[in-house]
Amino acid sequence: MKVLAAMSGGVDSAVAAARAAEAGHEVVGVHMALSKNRDQRRTGSRGCCTVEDASDARRAADRIGIPYYVWDLSDDFHDLVVEDFLTEYAAGRTPNPCVRCNERIKFASLLERATLLGFDAVCTGHYASIRSEGPGGAPSLHRSRNDAKDQSYVLAVMGPEAVGRSLFPLGDFEDKQAVRAEARARGLGVSTKPDSYDICFIADGDTRGFLERSLGEAPGEVVDPDGTVLATHTGTHGYTIGQRKGLGIQHPAPDGRPRYVVDIDPARRQVVVGASELLSTRELHATDVISFEELTEGRPVHAQIRAHGEAVPAVIQQVPAPDAPGSLLQVRLDTPVRGVAPGQTLVLYDGDRVLAAATLERRA
């Protein structure tokens, strides 16, 4: 196959590209330049897709012996990921920008360009597996063998069509050290490069500061569930469901227990805080469902609401009505979970196989 290998400049994508080339595919490496700041530099382990990363990716491609290009996707990234992040926070929701990047950049913009150029598939260094059940069976997305690094949750939004045109060569690695060892054996200089983490377009890790600089101030009140004003704030976008610290409350609750953000109302400019039990729910409601197979009511599943959270046993209570945009997927959990926030991604599993992804709207 003719394969386009997305090379971030890290060890994972370099080993993935090397494995694809070794498997006999005609591989071309491409680095996605996502930052509009051409002078952006990496800060330790923070950030990715910087000038240094592009250079590291080029050296890895040279070592593997494949052609290499840099594609400027900064406009797409800004419009489809960064602006979405800001819009969601301004609306009192909690988005996952890595999910959006995988959906809209790595498996939409990149795959579209790859198709136009005649490539058969896109190869990345994600930790996930693609399998086909039986002869001629449709490919399905599964968890990686490396539970600690599994990325099937953030990949679930790519949908079945993109899965069928993707390669994830790292899915069978049991741990990251094995990947680094293979990189060393292949002579790849990125074998000891630290992993990137946090939000790539907020290189200093100060999410709240980034939101304040981007969205400005919109002062309002911090209240308890009865509406009693406890403090003031400079913008609801500085808060997330489940947050405990930085609430600005100067006196303890009457019962002495900690308070948490339990609701955010941007229209009224209110942040509602309350006891921890107000964060727990067993009912999840979601829209914008992306299914890998037909969902049925009453089906047992496992539901996951965070990238590295636990998948909880659950039952599908309601499936979206066909051709009815905005209709709900409802799931009931066997045990309550805390801190469910609108805007988070819900992923349903059958064992290690992804069944569907959706966007959480509210909790019952």
From TrEMBL:
SUPFAM superfamilies xref list: Adenine nucleotide alpha hydrolases-like
Binding positions for ATP per the UniProt entry: 6-13, 32, 125
Pfam assignment, any one: tRNA_Me_trans_M
Region span, Interaction with tRNA: 149-151
A GO term from the CC aspect: cytoplasm
Domain tRNA-specific 2-thiouridylase MnmA-like C-terminal, residue spans: 297-358
Described function: Catalyzes the 2-thiolation of uridine at the wobble position (U34) of tRNA, leading to the formation of s(2)U34.
Protein's name in the database: tRNA-specific 2-thiouridylase MnmA
